[in-house]
Amino acid sequence: MNGRIWKMVLSPTDPTVVQSLSILIEGDDNPVKTVTEIHQPDNLETTVNGLYITEDPGSSQQFNLEQQGTDAARATTARIWQYKFADASLNVVAKVDQSADQGPTDVDAAPTAGAWGAWESTGIVDVSAMFGPGKFLVNVQAHTLWIEKQAATNWTNKREGGQLLLVTIPGG
Asked: Does the first or last residue of the chain, that is N or C, have fewer Cβ atoms within 10 Å of its Cβ?
């Protein structure tokens, strides 16, 4: 339900031969949304030190603000994970900040902020060769932050407030 990342080992002498196929990282398969596990891995980037994974939480991992009283321990925004090759550890290294939702730049008509997880982290690229060690470009798609809205006869054109971020991930 919440995705997984596979590991495929190819033959060093013939890359058309698969030597093994296994699950490297298993997504959360618990219906109670285990906060310590990855939810719907989206984009991947690799460096010599590790694998970097963005989350696209999707509808099954979104938390309405009204529900956070009972789900607070499980509620989370989209995250970026680091899988270290050296010790096979998997850790959250960044979380999407949705605090601009319902702020002064948000022009949607929703009475409350969007559910946590409605924004996604996506498109991670290692740019350390240009900006220094551990530097990555990451995109955040802010699906509930409307910065422009144009109504027509029977449709609405909206422009979301996404961000392109330069982030530093130690050990990247």
From this structure: N
Domain ranges of the chain: 4-168
* 40 vs 43: CA distance, rounded Å: 10
Angle ∠(56,58,59) on CA atoms, nearest 5: 165
| Model pLDDT for residues 22-53, shown as the tens digit of each residue | 999 998 887 657 778 888 888 999 999 999 99
CA distances in angstroms from 108 to 56, 65, 74, 87, 147, listed in the order given: 22, 17, 27, 45, 8
pTM above 0.70, yes or no: yes
